[in-house]
Structure formats: structure tokens, C-alpha cells
Amino acid sequence: MGRKPCCDKVGLKKGPWSAEEDQKLINFILTNGQCSWRALPKLAGLLRCGKSCRLRWTNYLRPDLKRGLLSEYEEQMVIDLHAQLGNRWSKIASHLFGRTDNEIKNHWNTHVKKKLKKMGIDPLTHKPLSTINITSEPQEQKIDKSSMELPETSLNSTITEAKEEEKSMKITCPLLNQTMETTTTTTININGFCTKEVSLIEPHEILVTSTINSAPSPTSSSCYSSKLIEEFEFHDLEWLIDYNTSSDDNGNINNLGLWDDDFDAWGNLLSDRPKLANDSDSFSSPQIQCPTRLPFDQEYSWIYT
DNA sequence: AAAATCCTCAACCGCGTACAG
DNA sequence: ACTGTACGCGGTTGAGGATTT
Q1: SMART domains annotated for this entry (predicted)?
Q2: Mean pLDDT of the A195-203 span
Q3: What does the pLDDT read at residue A68?
Q4: Which nucleotides of B are covered by protein (CB under 7 A)?
Q5: In Å, how far are A9, A10, A100, A166, A273 from A14, measured between CA atoms?
Q6: What is the reported pLDDT for A285?
Q7: Percent of chain A with pLDDT over 70
Q8: Residue A141 three-state SS
Q9: pLDDT in tens, A133-157
């Protein structure tokens, strides 16, 4: 006996969502918040299953989504995180604000895989496709770099940075948070990221590649570089966060509560004027200035003024 | 210009897991 | 402990647009 379907599929619509359906879903969630996905379609007047609604919302309609191609830094982060986490797209997505697991998975399958293969790297193992026995034959680690016709990519610029750094000091394998001696480890570094297998690390331990050029904060191990932070200037969103109330013991921002059950933040979203950080009637809930440029303002819009 | 092929990505499917009763 | 239900995740599909022949 098979699994019971998540919902009664008879008479339910499948396939691409229409603008009208999107609008219904948005209106419902903005008004009522996210309740049970199973119950939502009926309540919202949609002929869709709850699963489809959830997917549509999380992958396309959420107002905090970034659209468009992944930047070079985002792509590098995906590669590094994939080396650590494997195909755990959701975990990877959680490190990239405004990106969904589906988006990252698609990008990986359509772009990154090819790119890595072209560079001679196995996208599954993140190891060189060529068979080089690193441990038993250290002399073989030397690669004739001039023979490697790698395309000029962000990865290669990272490689350049890393190699320059190698000249004078130990380098830190960024995502693995490991320091490696600059001896005969060129094989490992040539690919722009470490291929050494290590146990999983916690997200806050992850260092991005560009930390090579910017010293990490001595008080925090979650040291995304300023360069990366710049990359994460959310062009579509402006978040005003009350840092006085939103840091945990490690200084991590932890109350971006737009999706909290109580939907305080949605109250702001729906208010005539977004609350500002210096408003006199300050409140303890997250102070978020909600998006004024939302994902789809071409065909139809849910911008409110 | 038309047909064939390739590519992208939104959406679906099914499984694993969490949780309530 | 067991069962049923709902949700979330990762793999896969296929429509439609882009590119090539």
C-alpha cells in the first residue's frame, strides 16, 4: 500500500503558477501569515496542494529573495560549502541570504558542475580528476601549471591570491579553517580550495576565501570578509536591524524574524510607513525595514505605498 | 526561416523525519 | 512504542526559451 498523497489531488491544478494565483498566495500570507500549508490552499482559494504552495512561496514569492545569477562570491561560497556539506542544498542555502536551495541546486547542476569539470575537478569529490597520489608520491604533486589551461574565473583569481600568499607564509585553507604549510601542497591549492578531507565544521567556523587578504576578527570566528559583506549588500532589500537587541553571545545576528510565527515583522511590512531604527516608540521585536523593491514589479506588483 | 538541439530553471515526486495523539 | 500526519529536503522532470545547424 502506497503512501497517502499529501492532499487530494483530484481537481488540483499543476504546472506553472499564474499571476492571479501568485497574488492570492501573497495576499493570504501577508494577511494571515504562514499557517498550515495543507490548509492554506483552501483558505486562500487556490486549487493547489499545500506542498505546491509552500514551494512557490519559498522558492519564488518570498520577499527576501535575491533574484538573478549568483555572483562570483556566492558561487565560490557554494563550491566551498559543497565541498564540506555535499548535496545538502538547504544547508548551503542557509549560508547565502536570499537564495533558495532549489536555486543553488539548479545553479550547481547547470553551471558549477561544468565549470569544475572543465577545470579538471571532480564536482562530487572536489578532487582533481587526474589520478595523482598525493600521499605516497609527494614528488608527483608538482603539477606543470603552464600546461593547465584553466579558464579565467573567480576561482582562478582566488588561486592567484592564494599562491601569492604562499610565497611568504603559511596559508589558511579558507573553508576548512586549516592552516597548511607552503611546502609541496601546491596540488591541493591549485584548485582554489582544499581537497583534503576533514570532518564537517560548524557554519560559524567557515572562513571564506577572501579572508586571506583581510584579517579575521579576533573576537569572532565567523569572519566573512568585508569584501563578502559588500557582496551581500542586498540590492533589493534594506534591512534595518536593531543590533542592540539582536546579537547572541557570539555577536551573531539572530532575530531576523520576518518569518517568525507571530509575524511582527509582517506588521511592519504591511504598515504604511516602515518603522525606523530611531523611532521613539521603539520595540523589542526585530526592526526591519521591509522591501520596497520586491521580486517581481514587471508584470504585476505587490509594492504598496 | 525553419528545424533540431541544447540549456535553464520552476515545479513535481517521493522519501525521511519530526511530532502529536 | 506505535501510528498517522505534515513538512522539508534532494533528485528528477519537462516546458519553453536560446542557440545552432
Answers
A1: SANT
A2: 36
A3: 81
A4: 7-15
A5: 9, 11, 21, 55, 37
A6: 31
A7: 39
A8: helix
A9: 333 333 323 333 333 333 333 333 3
Nearest nt to A51, CA vs C1'? C7
Going by C-alpha positions, the residue among A209, A166, A214, A208 that lies closest to residue A187 is: A166
3 state DSSP class of A171? strand
CB atoms within 10 A of CB A147: 6
As ranges, strand C nucleotides with an atom below 7 A of a protein CB are 5-12, 15-16
| Closest among A248, A134, A116, A252 to A186, alpha carbons compared | A134
Mean pLDDT of A161-187: 31
Is the pLDDT at A66 greater than 50? The verdict is yes
A56/B14 CA-to-C1' distance in Å: 18
> Residue A243 CA to C3 C1' — how many Å?
45
CA A5 → C1' C14, Å? 22
pLDDT of residue A263: 35
Alpha-helical segments (H) within chain A: 19-32, 40-44, 50-56, 72-85, 89-93, 101-107, 113-118, 154-166, 186-189, 226-231, 243-246, 264-270
Identity of the residue numbered A108? W
Task: Round to whole Å and give the CA distance between A176 and A80.
Answer: 9
Task: Retrieve residue A192's grid coordinates.
Answer: 582554489
Q: How far is CA A237 from CA A62, A63, A76, A183, in A?
A: 12, 9, 22, 45
Mean pLDDT of A264-284: 35
- Per DSSP, the three-state class of A184 is coil
Average per-residue pLDDT in chain A? 55
Domains of chain A, first to last: 19-61 (1.10.10), 72-230 (no CATH), 237-294 (no CATH)
Q: CB–CB of A25/A19 below 8 Å?
A: no
